[in-house]
């Protein structure tokens, strides 16, 4: 299986060590997932959105390309090639203001375009799936909010955007959500146990 990991954090994918003011639990989750994938013999490709200079803003040219079904900017075309090669996509990001950071939302807006990720249906019909190789999506996120509060009080907005509002609309039904909540309240041992569970889950990915 070939897995595309889409990572979004200002510190970058290398910030996985537990060093104050230079650490990212999201980066540690990415590293844990990569360890599991490697142990299972899967191939992978990591898109570090911030490090690669991805522009999340949907420009006028992007919108015209979306509406006309023509190719977008070169950075989008390169990312679409990487998406098209994936059997599974993993999004890794911190939950900020109850949702995903800007680069992840921009990835959805700019990369999953008509003519690539889906085709328009006839009036009243569902979107037509075009990403036939893609079998599933997993979301890994770190949040300070307790999980029950995120679900019951806030209505799990990032999960709903990515699952119900994006991938299920384009025909991808197999979507997993893995969160490390109360992230600032976890000691080193609880943090390592949570990361070990991620490694095991990705070692068992199929």
UniProtKB/TrEMBL annotation:
<dbReference type="Pfam" id="PF02525">
    <property type="entry name" value="Flavodoxin_2"/>
</dbReference>
<keyword id="KW-0560">Oxidoreductase</keyword>
<dbReference type="InterPro" id="IPR003680">
    <property type="entry name" value="Flavodoxin_fold"/>
</dbReference>
<protein>
    <submittedName>
        <fullName>NAD(P)H-dependent oxidoreductase</fullName>
    </submittedName>
</protein>
<dbReference type="InterPro" id="IPR029039">
    <property type="entry name" value="Flavoprotein-like_sf"/>
</dbReference>
<feature type="domain" description="Flavodoxin-like fold">
    <location>
        <begin position="1"/>
        <end position="199"/>
    </location>
</feature>
<dbReference type="InterPro" id="IPR051545">
    <property type="entry name" value="NAD(P)H_dehydrogenase_qn"/>
</dbReference>
<comment type="similarity">
    <text>Belongs to the NAD(P)H dehydrogenase (quinone) family.</text>
</comment>
């Amino acid at each position: 299986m070939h897995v595309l990991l889409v990572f979004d954090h200002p510190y970058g994918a290398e910030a996985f060590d537990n060093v104050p003011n230079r650490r990212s639990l999201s980066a540690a989750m990415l590293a844990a997932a990569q360890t599991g994938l490697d142990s299972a013999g899967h191939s992978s490709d990591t898109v570090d959105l911030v490090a690669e200079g991805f522009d999340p803003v949907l420009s006028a040219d992007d919108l015209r390309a979306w509406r006309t079904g023509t190719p977008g900017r070169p950075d989008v075309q390169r990312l679409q090639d990487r998406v098209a090669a994936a059997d599974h996509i993993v999004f890794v990001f911190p939950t900020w203001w109850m949702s995903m950071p800007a680069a992840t939302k921009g990835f959805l807006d700019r990369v999953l375009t008509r003519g690539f990720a889906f085709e328009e249906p006839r009036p009243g019909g569902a979107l037509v799936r075009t990403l036939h190789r893609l079998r599933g999506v997993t979301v890994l996120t770190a949040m300070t909010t307790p999980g029950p509060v995120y679900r019951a009080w806030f209505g799990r907005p990032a999960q709903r955007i990515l699952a119900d509002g994006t991938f299920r609309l384009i025909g991808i039904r197999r979507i997993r959500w893995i969160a490390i909540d109360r992230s600032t309240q976890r000691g080193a041992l609880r943090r390592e146990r949570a990361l070990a569970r991620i490694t095991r889950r990705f070692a068992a990915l199929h």
